[in-house]
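Hi team,

As requested, here is the filled-out complex form for the flavin-adenine dinucleotide run. I kept the field names the same as last time so the parser does not choke. Let me know if anything looks off before we queue the next batch.

— J.
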Amino acid sequence: MNDTYDVAVIGGGLLGCATAYYLARAGAGVLLLEKNQIGRHASGQNAGSLHFQLEYRMIEQGRKAAREAARALPLHLDAITAWRDLPQEIGEDCGVVQNGGIMLAETPHQIGLLTEKAELERSLGLDVTLLEGPALREHAPYLSTKVTAAAYMPHEGKANPRLVTPALARAAAARGAEIRVRSPLTELIRGAGRWRLGCADGFRARAQTVVIAAGVWTDQVAGMADVRLPVTPVALQMLATARTAPFLPHLVQHVGRRLSLKQTAEGNVLIGGGWPSAFVIREGRTDVDSPPGLRHSSITGNLDAASVIPGIRPLPVLRAWSGMTTLTPDQLPLIGEVPRRPGLYAATGGSAFTLGPTYARLLSETILTGTASLPLGPYSPARFGFLNAA
Ligand SMILES: Cc1cc2nc3c(=O)[nH]c(=O)nc-3n(C[C@H](O)[C@H](O)[C@H](O)COP(=O)(O)OP(=O)(O)OC[C@H]3O[C@@H](n4cnc5c(N)ncnc54)[C@H](O)[C@@H]3O)c2cc1C
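And here is what came back:
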């Protein structure tokens, strides 16, 4: 054994680095293990959208699914201030801009969806306004006339995914967290009231508490402790155009199509919104260790959806890339202690860029004090306790 820690965090994505930061800030002895590099996976590959409205993936499954997904809205509300405060908190700008976001509708059916969504969100405290006619044109003059309505949320925006996670890792290290990269966890065993950790590079440690913040590898790491979590990997892709003069101050999404759009500080337009890329299948199994391949149909579909902003059409697409993220069967986050595994916690779920600082703070509160400043019950791994009898 080399060392003993209060908490070992597995995974150096946004969730792992932010959790390590909040724990170390409170004085805990923290070890973070990352098998590759900090921010190498979903946390460095994502679209950087800070979206607080319900997303298309929640709405497309119908009213019941949208209401279920809305059970995470208290976290969305918390995330608005978490992102506002983050740059000052960690002393790095991270490209956080909260200029507002709009979700578009083009057809009467989509206007109905938008209206219903906005009512649900307002009932739960989210500041959403419906814009139509001249008010919409004035607010977003860059939109095609085929867009007939939009839901405006003033705090949505963007952050730079390439900056945020490394900045959180630096902030955690500055508060005493030990960060080991290229150190894949391969062994996680409970014994004598502690967790024993073993890594492929020979590093060994013990920890009172272990946090699995391993993204699409969540079930793999949980499996080391002989426990199963229903976390499904999802392969997505993104596009970036050439730079152009600033014209798009908002985050733009669509209520009836997969779409997210924003302009970076450098002038490129990032186009995404949940278009699938293709998992590598090796020996009949999904290989989450290989980057998914790009799908041509997703590129053309995404560009077609982006035609709601005519100014994008002449811009050459410079780059397309893929990445993997996670979803749970009910689309709610998975945050909290794993049933029947004392001291083992997990944190993952959709939109964990937007919600990541919030997940991490609430999880660290739970670990440190046994309770969080927002109820985590609806997101607890205990709801999947029936999968693990032993
Ligand atoms: C293309 C794309 C676009 C997206 N756009 C958005 C968006 O605009 N807004 C939004 O909110 N969300 C978005 N997401 C989702 C978001 O990126 C993720 O929810 C979030 O980054 C997850 O962070 P994480 O730290 O849980 O996972 P990751 O960033 O994947 O980090 C997990 C880390 O664990 C490490 N790890 C795994 N196993 C081990 C092990 N055995 N030992 C040590 N380390 C290990 C991995 O190497 C990895 O670095 C997008 C995702 C993709 C792929």
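Two things worth flagging: The CA atoms of residues 87 and 93 lie 5 Å apart. The two ends are 28 Å apart (CA to CA).

Thanks,
J.
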